Each structure stands twice: as structure tokens, then as C-alpha cells.
Amino acid sequence: MLKYWRIWLLVLVVFGSVLAIGFKTYPYGRNAVEIVYFSDESPARGVLEQGMVISTVNGQTVNGLSGWEELTKGLTGEVEFVADGRKYTFTVNETLGIDVVDIEKSNLNFGLDLRGGTRIVLKPKDNATKETIDQVISTLQTRANLYGLREMNFIPVRDAQGEYYVLIEVAGISRDIVDDLLSTQGNFEAKISKHVHLVVGDGSFQLGDETFPVRLTGNDTIELDGHAMGTGDNHTLGGIEFEYVNKTAENVLLFMGKAYDSNDIELVYTDPQSSGVIPIQGGYKFFFGVLVSTDGAQRFADITSGSLSYLDLQSGERYLESVLFLYLDDQLVSDLRISSDLGGRLVQNPQVTGSRTEQEDAIQEKLRLQTILRSGALPTSLEAVSVDIMSPALGGEFLHSTMYAAIFAAALVIVIVFIRYRTLKVAIPMVLIGLSEVVVILGIAAINDSVIWGTVMVLAFLFVATAWWKKHEIDLYAWAGVLLIPLLGMASWTIDLPAIGGIIAAIGTGVDHQIIIADETLTGRKDRRSYTLKEKINRAFFIIFGAAATSIAAMVPLMTIGIGFLRGFAITTIVGVLVGILITRPAYARIVEAMNKD
Question: 565-579 vs 424-445: helix axis angle to the nearest 10?
Fold first, then answer.
């Protein structure tokens, strides 16, 4: 057995790859479906969640996507679902409003072009130009990246009337993300309340070092620096926009001054010292800091100047009567008390806070707000006008076509190699080695396989160590393969069209390398007769390693740059080349070596 240890090492890696791809548990059934979207009218919204696996409908087992469509067609009245192993009941009136996809049958993470997903059409609420749509897409891409959303394609489209839309294609996304993250315009404003105390109908409005007269002229009207204002009216004073809110029963006029807006946000802190979630009574509080511009800090100082303070009996701290209110798209996010020692001072690091009942909700809300503030405001507000589940662009038909093409290519390789060497002993192993490379590449790309690849590493290490101990030879490439290939297997990436292109490139490179090995060792030309078999194989691997190094060097820039599809292609190609030179090429060389001895 140790005589062919390189071949057995390949068998071990292939077996581990097969397990990594196919060893998958189905806690809720193998033919269930996964929820990817809820419509606004869905009665299940708020009851079920995106990502749940539905296994039965009204006591009947869901048999994949086709079975789901049969069970839910025309469904009305009280409905019972079993989702993630738990029963849920709700009433369907007009529409169920749940979009689903088949659950994955393997550990391979297929891309949008193979698996399908959700298509969302967002419409600007105002007439938008092509430049506006380009800016919208740029901002949405930034939000998607910051939020950690994957496999999202943003496409500008235009209808027959010349109106622009944003088309989003994504493998799976919840309605909440569409409404709260992607459709949100993201206009941020920080307003500070300003109190003016009246004495016999007159008062003074302090703004920084300046003071402006205020006079009550009616129940709902005032005069500020000679400018008449009613409730809800705005007036710019000292470069700051103020809104007159009302007059309280204590003869205090209440104004709201705009201190910061989206343009003032220079940095959103995400480090653990400035951002986090902490438990409080009745839920969880989230917080994170932001850095605002010097102009915004000056407006804060001007508005809070002259503000009176009070003592909080519970905490023992003194606070200004002014309060900092934070708004996002005119919706109040949080209101913060201001310490008395900050009145009239430049404050460039305000803190955004909020609370939720559940910890996960607090974490997601913090991430959403941070994402919107970091990406900036959209130039126009958006609304979702269409959400559909899209069929795979290629899907099963593409995979079947690829399989037929692979069979045809393998047959063609066998014929050509047979014509060249006049024996199937060279051609058939060449095809099998190429197939094994595909399996290993897919196994490395699979998800949730760390335990399997860890086991493969341990067994391969023992295997190679035993071979070295018995034969007393050191194979550095085998040792590198034992360590590197399982480590790569613990990572994962998406199998999409670029990745398939990388697999094809790796197979082509592999066939070339195997032909070099066969040609160097089996042709028997006169200029090779002086070399031993081992020397011939070493000459072949010198050429192979040179070609592999060139391929890897060409792919590394594409992988690090990470521009769209180039990154997936580069990663797959590099992994394929490494699998070849460390595992499969040495195994094929051992097969050829055995044929020479026969």
C-alpha cells in the first residue's frame, strides 16, 4: 500500500471532498422549502421569518417547490404551517404572500445565476435622471457591502415612458431589509431644543455671543429679531435654521435648531469602545458614536449657549434643559440629554442610542443605522414597486448542459491521447484525475465542513508521516498538500459562473500538465534515453511548477483587487492549480511510473 501512497493520498482527499459536499443534515425534512420573502399583504408577516424552513402545510408534507405551489394554490381561511419544527397558525384572506425556494441539497453555496433568488424593483418617488440613478446605485452598493449582504446585483432600467428604476437581484432577502435599509433615503438630522423664557411677553434669544429679542404677539405667534413666526414656521438665524414649536404653559417659547445633517457626518464609529449593545431593564440598549464636522460642532455650541440646567434627582447629574433629537428621514431615532458642562462648547462626538426588547433586534438596528449613516443619504427616496422570485438564469438546465459537455470533452481527451500514445492506460487515468480535481475543488468551496477537513488533515498527516518513516524520504510537496489543502477546505466561496470558469481553467491546466508528464516519461525519444525514470518525472515537474507559478502569479492581482466576477474566477483557478501540483499531479506521475515498470 505504501508503494502507491501518493495515489491513496489522492483517494483520501477526494473522499473528504465528497463528504464535504454531500454530508448534510436536514432537521426539517429534505424536501422542504425556505422562505425568502414576504409581501406587505402577507398574513404571515410578523409570524414567520425570512430563512425559516417550511415542512408541512395543513398537515401535508411539502415536496419541494412544486409541492409548495400545489398545496398553497388558492389557499384561504385558517392555515397551519410547520416552520423550523414549530407550528404556526394564521388566517389567509386574499393572498398568502410568501415566496420560497427549494432548500439546498448540498453544502455548495450556489450563486444567483445558478440558484435563482429575488428580483426587486425600486422606483424613485421623484423624477430621476440617469446621473441620479447612478448615484443611488453607488450608495446602495455601499450599504449592501457595509451591512454584509452578498450576491446583490444593482441594475439601472428605464421604461417606455423614460422613467428610471433600480433593479436589484439577490439570492434571498427579507422585506424588512428592502424597506428599512435599501428603500430608506437616509436623510440624517440632529436638532436641539432651544428654550426662551418670557417675562411679561418679552425674552432674549441667545445664540453664541449674540442675543436677539423675542416678543409674544399672539397666542400662536411671535416676533423673533423682527421676523413674525407662527407655530411650525422656520427662520434662519446666525446661519442656523430654527423652527418655532410652541409656547408652554410656563411662558416658555420652544424652538428646534438644526445642528447637524448628513453632510456633517465624517465618521461612524464601529469599534467596541465606541459601539455596542448592553442589557438594560426590559431589553437591550445599543449605542455608537459619530464624528461630525467643525461647522456642525459650532452650531451645537451656538444653540446650547445660554441654556439653563437642572439637577436630575435620580442620577445626581446636571443636564441642560436643551435636548438633542436625532432624526432619520423625519423619524425620531433617539433623544439624548446634554450634560450641563457641554453648553456652549464644541461637541464633535455625539452618540446615537436606542433600545429594543430583544438583543438580536438591538444589534440589527444598530448595524442598520450605522450602515445608513456611513453610506450617506440617497439623492432621492425610493419605494419598492415589485418583488418577485426569479428562476435560475441557468439552473438545472445549465448544469445538465455542462455535464454533457464534460462527458463529450472527456471522450475527446481519451480519443486524442489514445491516438498519441496508443494505449488507454494513459488516457483513462488522465480523465479520472481531471474528474477528481473537480470534486476536490468543489469540496474545498463547500460550507460547514471544518470538521471533515480537520479529520482529513489528521489522517493525511499520519499517512504521509508513515510513508516517510517507512521509505525514509522527504516529499516537501506532499507535506505542503497535507497542510494547505485541508486549510483551504475550511474556507468557502460561492459557486457561480466565474467559479465554473475557474474550474474549467484548472481542468485545462491539469490536462496540459498530465500530458507533459506522460510525454516526458513514455515517448522514449533518443534524447531521453540517458535519463532514469525518476529524472524524467523530475524534468516534467520542473516544467509543471514553472507553469503553475506563472498561473498563480497572474491570478493573485485579480483576487486581491476583487473586482466583481474576476475575484471568484481567480480564487477558483488558484485553488485548482494548488490541488493539481500538490495532490493530483504527483498521483498521476506515480500511475505513469507504475506503467513504465510493467
Answer: 130
Give the cell for residue 17. Answer: 471532498
Rounded to whole angstroms, how far apart are CA atoms 262 and 376? 7
Distance CA 554, CA 426 (A): 30
d(CA 509, CA 209): 75
Cα–Cα distance for residue pair 410/516, rounded to 1 Å: 18
Give the span between the Cα atoms of 260 and 190, in whole angstroms: 5
Identify the CATH number of the domain in which residue 412 sits: 1.20.1640.10
**DSSP secondary structure string for all residues of 127-172:** ---HHHHHHHHHHHHHHHHHHT--SEEEEEEE-TTS-EEEEEEES-
**Shared domain check, 274 and 245:** yes
- Could you tell me which of 258, 266, 320 has the C-alpha nearest to residue 291? 266
Structural domain including 65 reads 33-102
Instruction: Provide the pLDDT for residue 528.
Output: 47
Whether residue 417 is found in the same domain as residue 557? yes
pTM for the full predicted model: 0.62
The tens digit of pLDDT for each residue in 440-454 reads: 999 999 988 889 999
Using CA atoms, how far apart are residues 133 and 127, in angstroms rounded to an integer? 10
* Confidence category of residue 562, pLDDT binned at 50, 70, 90: very low
